[in-house]
Amino acid sequence: MSGPRLVYVTARSTSTTASGEGPSSDVVRRFSELDSTADLTRLLHRAYADHAAAGRMFFAAYQSEQDTAYRLSTGECWVAFQDDELVGTVTVAAPYRAPQGYPAPAGAGSFCQLAVDPERRGTGLGQRLLMLAESRIAALGSDQVVIDTSAQAMDLVAWYRRRGYVAIGTWRWDVTNYESVVLAKDLSVC
Questions:
Q1: pTM of the entire structure?
Q2: How does pLDDT run across 158-188, given as a tens digit for each residue?
Q3: CA 121 to each of CA 12, 14, 20, 88, 112: distance values in angstroms, whole numbers, following the listed order
């Protein structure tokens, strides 16, 4: 992988806020029992609101706090803070326990709920969270990543493709209103 690497336990970086207000201090770390599931759920709702407004009902756009807690239990949840404000997250699992029929390579890892507060978009935080997810999946023993997203979210699909993901199939979740494109990336060639 090119670019800066995040440290697994804690990562600090200095970046400029999306509004250009100058440097801010970012910390990326594992979600802990002291963190708020309610705050994380609100972040997810904010981050996925534009998809919902476009008619794409990503589960993260409306999931309950209980749903968030369950999804946290399925892997490692990482959270990003800017000056003590929760601004990003990603949850990583490796190996991924895909439902029967899901087109995932055997032994692949996955991540979900990659979210950045709308006020922090364009600052590179999403890229850093993606790099962290891929690094953790590799560290957990998987050399491939599989994810899915709305096939209608063409800008998001293009964002992943620019980062080495290729379409390998489609899937239909019962908690969304769209067909998902399933994307994979081979981490062994990064």
A1: 0.85
A2: 999 999 999 999 989 888 878 889 999 999 9
A3: 18, 15, 12, 10, 18
